[in-house]
Amino acid sequence: MSSADQGRPRPGTPAGLAVIGGGQLARMMQQAAIGLGVRIRLLAEGPDVSAAQVIPDHVVGDYTDLDDLRTAVADAAVVTFDHEHVPPEHLAAIEAEGHACRPGPHALIYAQDKRAMRERLTELGAPCPRWAVVESPGDLADFGLPAVLKTTRGGYDGKGVWVVREPADADEAFASGRPLIAEELVDFRRELSAQVARRPSGDVVAYPVVESTQVDGVCKEVVAPAPDHPDAAQDLARRISTELDVVGMLAVELFETRDGRLLVNELAMRPHNTGHWSIDGSATSQFENHLRAVLDLPLGPTDPHHPWSVMVNILGGAVEDLAAQRSVVLAEDPGVHVHLYGKTVKAGRKVGHVTVVGDDLDETLSRARRAADLFEKGSTDG
Amino acid sequence: MSSADQGRPRPGTPAGLAVIGGGQLARMMQQAAIGLGVRIRLLAEGPDVSAAQVIPDHVVGDYTDLDDLRTAVADAAVVTFDHEHVPPEHLAAIEAEGHACRPGPHALIYAQDKRAMRERLTELGAPCPRWAVVESPGDLADFGLPAVLKTTRGGYDGKGVWVVREPADADEAFASGRPLIAEELVDFRRELSAQVARRPSGDVVAYPVVESTQVDGVCKEVVAPAPDHPDAAQDLARRISTELDVVGMLAVELFETRDGRLLVNELAMRPHNTGHWSIDGSATSQFENHLRAVLDLPLGPTDPHHPWSVMVNILGGAVEDLAAQRSVVLAEDPGVHVHLYGKTVKAGRKVGHVTVVGDDLDETLSRARRAADLFEKGSTDG
């Protein structure tokens, strides 16, 4: 018996696709890759991160280090991403060396840099909250309060975002020394997300628009489709994907204001938390369509299987042993689709999600919430 | 950057489940395991077999070697299987050493040994073709022709099976020196398969009965559910799983005779080719329910998403580069669910399958057949 010989590129079996970043998005891409017969090579942050647990052909390295990136993409013609944090200059270098980055750096910059995104969307006439570059408390006073301050780069899941109701709320943001933009604090009725997949050729498929609920800046709950959603959201996502030349999945997160306007909140150019429902609820999951898009394969249909799909994130809570809790959750409701990410539980960390599909929204919602609650708290009593 | 450190058991992360055998069934179990958050350790026949491509924690070894088996199951409390070929005495040894084999050797023997299976089913009063142990051409003459000769052990996909219409057809079988049984050559109208999943506690869920079509002893096509299928098939599968104390998936392959009787053809105690449709067509795939059953988790619902699901196997043909052909198939019909097994194409070898779901049987069937044809022949013209 010999031990397994994985790790570095295997002779004779080139990777079909390099994926940078070993989080749960890369992990769920692997489920789709297994079906399609796509061999993924992963650049993982550590030997046992979420996606490294399920992708044999991985190298451990730092995505901010160009040499590590080069090793990981080696013989892969196409490169895609679990997150938006690879430095743009490294992406340019990899492209220059003959690898197709999908999405390409010229598109990805609008998911990496919020100022660039606001400038470009404003140019395109896409509806945005009122915004401005702010370099000082004086600039912010001119912009007016309340406002939201955001670092232009590197923020996610509520990090790098400050709601400023009075001047002192901005101290931390300015003290960070990072470039900032201010945005109008939108009085929204709800948040929507419009997702599309786009091929290099320009073909686009759109998923049903969904409604998402955030708690402390972190996505908690998604209802697909969003009840009474405006078609304009889907049209806007299609248009943005085309104008920005996105390849792969694009999520356009939107505010729906109380007076019925749609405003673009964020862009993500990868599979997105608001599309996880599609694994269990749609004819083609966002992960499969992401792979199909970046590999320039024809895109799959996005029709839901059932009238309603509800996804609820499992955020790290009182329960430490999620595997043990799995049997409790499934005993309560064997029809819940469980997705665990192989991560150590930490307070508030996304460690998994559940999806429930059904014909009745209230029932579907309460089943999904109850399952996530059981995973977080251990019980739903009291 | 360090290379990946997989292979032997990782310190601190015990495998949730050991799987013996690295074929496509283990590969598809991994898709379900990723969702459930189950860590699989695989015993693979080679470093790049189908499932070893997608399961990092694998050891390469020989499933007929007890030491290799011991290394693979190491810290895994539960052991399950991609195939039925592990020697019964090794299974008994592993069980004695504290690992739960699921299915257990006392059940699995009825999927390993056709004589034991016929004796036990006869005892239970389960309907079987007329059969007898035959040790010589004289025994076979007494049994009567035409007949089917089968080796009691080690046959699969038409191997170890001889249709005997005249005495000379039996020469190869008797020359093999292997123990044989003779069975009546059943004049069947069609073949059905009834699948159930069963937990150690005895809970059972049944999948819809499907119709399967074999070509040269190899499964080619499955329609789920079988049109006008008898409920008796499902009842029989439930009963056999309980009487034989099967844990995990059980497939009961059945002949439906022209006069409407059901006769048991074969038993398989693992996910089965006749259940692949469930990945794309059912609320819970057979692979997820196999994992749930062997890990003693509550079983998932088996309802189909659509009125019809059709699965057609891709058997090795003229097309060598299946990955390249994938774009041709999806361009013709982007709604086809493609499953490639990462295997080298050889004539007649199962290298993948396609599933199509729909509302109209004829259309669903012709779409699935056309996709499989394109994967095998490169075109469907002429």
From TrEMBL, chains A, B:
One GO term of the biological process aspect: 'de novo' IMP biosynthetic process
EC assignment: 6.3.4.18
Gene Ontology MF term list: 5-(carboxyamino)imidazole ribonucleotide synthase activity; ATP binding; metal ion binding; phosphoribosylaminoimidazole carboxylase activity
InterPro entries linked to this entry: ATP-grasp (IPR011761), ATP-grasp_carboxylate-amine (IPR003135), ATP_grasp_subdomain_1 (IPR013815), PreATP-grasp_dom_sf (IPR016185), PurK (IPR005875), PurK_C (IPR040686), PurT/PurK_preATP-grasp (IPR054350), Rudment_hybrid_motif (IPR011054)
Gene3D superfamilies, per database record: 3.40.50.20, ATP-grasp fold, A domain, ATP-grasp fold, B domain
Entry superkingdom: Bacteria
Domain ATP-grasp: 118-295
Oligomer status and interactors: Homodimer.
Annotated protein name in UniProt: N5-carboxyaminoimidazole ribonucleotide synthase
